[in-house]
Specification:
The chain is mainly β and about 130 residues long. The chain contains two helices and nine strands. The strands form two sheets. Strands 1, 2, 3, 4, 5, 6 and 7 form a seven-stranded mixed beta sheet that branches. Strands 8-9 form a two-stranded antiparallel ribbon.
């Protein structure tokens, strides 16, 4: 399957006028989190929440990255999301968790994102 990329906009949830656009952000269904440039996040006032997550690289080594909260917009959808602060050598990507929150899936042809339809209703009480 060829790689899929989308245009996205990232906003500061506390100041939605503070934002940046990303052209051709790679969609990575194998990554739970979206990874966004630490320097771009800092420019719009996004700070790490103090949470650090460990990731295992292909060679088996462990890296640690900080997380922060943003608003992610793709097409006409938006979601508040917890994202990884990608360092200079990291690849920025739109992860599966973000796709789930945006209620988007990759179309069967793998060429673009489409709405995933209604979410199932849980039958448990509050």
């Amino acid at each position: 399957m060829t790689s899929l990329s989308v245009d996205a906009q990232i906003e500061n949830p506390d100041d939605q006028e503070s934002r940046f656009a990303i052209a051709k952000l790679t969609v990575d269904r194998k990554s739970h989190y979206s990874w966004l440039s630490e320097s771009q996040l800092a420019q719009i006032g996004i700070e790490a929440e103090g949470k650090v997550v460990e990731f295992r690289e292909a060679d088996g080594s462990i890296i640690r990255r900080r997380l922060g909260m943003v608003i992610v917009r793709v097409h006409d959808k938006f979601a508040v999301d917890e994202v990884v602060f990608a360092e200079a050598d990291d690849t920025c990507r739109l992860g599966q968790g973000t796709l789930d929150r945006l209620n988007l899936v990759i179309d069967p042809g793998g060429k673009h994102l489409v709405p995933s339809g209604p979410k199932p209703l849980s039958m448990t009480s509050c």
